[in-house]
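Anyone? Bumping this.
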Amino acid sequence: MIFLTDIYLDHAATTPVRPEVWQEMKPFLDGTYQGNPSSIHRFGREARAAVDAARMTIAESVGAGTEEIIFTSGGTEADNLAVTGAARAREHEGRHVITTEVEHHAVLHACEQLEREGFDVTYLPVTADGTVRVETVQQALREDTILVTMMYANNETGIINPIAEIGECLRGHEALFHTDAVQAYGMLPIDVASLQVDMLTASAHKINGPKGAGFLYVKKETTLHPLIFGGEQERRLRPGTENVPAIVGFGAAVQSLQKERETRAKTYGQLVAHLLTTLASEDVPYEINGIEEKRLPSIINLHFPGTSTEPLLAQLDLEGVAVASGSACTAGSFQPSHVLKAMYGEEDPRVRASIRISVGFGNDEDQMETAAQAIANIAKRQRKILTEN
Amino acid sequence: MIYLDNSATTVAFSEVLETYQKTALRYFGNPSSLHGYGSEAEHLLRQARQSIAGILDIKANELIFTSGGTEGNNLAIKGVAYARRRRGNHIITTAVEHPSVLNTCRYLEKNGFEVTYLPVDNDGFVSLQDVKDASREETILVSIMHVNHETGAIQPVEKIGEWLKTREKIRFHVDHVQGAAKVPLHLHNSGIDLCTLSGHKFHGLKGTGMLYIREGVQIEPLLHGGGQEQNLRSGTENLPGIVAFAKALRLAYERYSEAKQALQTHKHELMQALRKREGMLINTPEEGSAPHIINVSISGTRPEIVIQALSKKDIHVSSKSACSARLQTASEVLDAQFGPGERAETGLRFSLGYNTTEVDIQQLLEALDEVVPEIRRVKEVKA
């Protein structure tokens, strides 16, 4: 059961739909506008206009042209389209792909699929601060490298990679550059030209939009192999009747985000700071995983020495505090974080005694205080039990 | 407003919208999350799956949620082809499938597979004998639609399934997108291994669909990632859409079974009336067609002009698959049925809904009588 008093601190997994987004979606759900955008009668044209408007808003939000935005069913599909689509389209030019060990599973498992198809994938390590170093990318580059895919900000730690510098370093190399910006999009201003990326992924339900919509920015004249074949939609890169209400909701979420991104980043940063202050005053030892200076304001990954992740999560849940261990996308099973393993090594205690807290719409200072107290109590109790045994 | 384009998309049931809204706003958790928000979402997901399984008489683990019909068809066809490519490389389909099937098959042809596109007769039917004749040692997949999206012709998929039961090596996929809730199709012990459904074709929401995959049938996923949907379809589940899909399916089964008689009557009347008019040829077979689709070729016109003219009168119809409506080419379906020529270039499709009335049909006929002669006249003058 969920109670009204529950505190949701898992906005990196998914976010509630904002009221202003819902308002925009509603006419596309209640029968006012219900057409198929490909139909040439009036109903169809209304739906088409709505999809075009959302595409315009979204294109502007990353400094892209409208013809460079491909709508997908979400972040996973966009990542798969970028990674497998680019590699398969360019396999005659080379078969080497570079990524990192800390990517989201949508990218990692797409890369593994490429390996099964005979591609050679280099999984770059990250430093203990959680970032990939530009020099590491540089050294891994080969003549036959056709694709570099690296996330903008990590979903488990919030740690931001130097995407613009990597983009700069790839200038003059034939390899395409893709970044998974699913987490970064809600917090950092993005301009595809200054990042020098060829492809960029974002997802609606991570920024208070509806589930079932995402986009892939694909720079003009970049050739991709579609994953899905069918009609003429999305310039044939993603056929299928457009999910109009979700796309409209995505556009509304982006519009609201564009207005408030800075304020949100500031507010969420303060909320996280408040949580940390409370933890400190409760005298519970903790460490931040990754480098503080390069962290998204909304996500923090904390290590509580002498505790264990799974019971920590379970007890917090009983207390009505929803946090996570890492990516939600491991289908309900608890597995030690591959991100923390890459940062600190398999055997480091951080790998099995850390939690991810991600703040967002609806959270306030009181909640942070209550959550911090609950975390502190549980962590202290666990620490005691575990050290006594 | 008269909406006769229900094969392109339908207006969602109001109950479905309420369900979507409630789920989206109240149960927004990620079903994969381990906390309360996640487990509530996961619970709803399981309920939806069970409800659908009950309606379709399949097991709850035999369905995978997708983003819609196009993805479902792609997942089925590419999924089987790649999972079974060591056993053979031959695929059988028909010339009248939806673009999401045809274009997937064409892609596979470029990637080492051989595809046989079976013809249809003048009524639009594919024959079991043709399937038998086309099948060979290397055949791994047969993909044939249930109800044709342009003409409403019902393919003999039950008979084909029965025969394919004796062909262990061949998987059978049925695109049931147009037939779902309107023409009964039993999946259990039918010889059908995979079956595609799309939510927005039966008053659910866009962006939702499912693929039935019979227990034991192996396929390769299209999307890799978090391992949702038995590792066959990664990505955060569109929970509100899925719950709405389950609701829509249940209501559509009820409402279309109630409306069946009325639909048959409307269809029959409309076909009779069109047949009496000059230069109109019915492309939908009298027997063996779905109760909601009527396709007619109107000589001396261009379908997009007729559609626009009707649209001005607030009557909304279409020509062919919406997925290719923007291309001003002849219908591939009618082309396969009658060969190239005016008949294939002038097809119009009227697709009815459970709530279509007698009056709607009368108004459509009156509007046609008004606009068609005018369009023909202008065309002649131009010529």
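Late reply, but here is one note on the structure posted above: Chain B has a mean pLDDT of 95.
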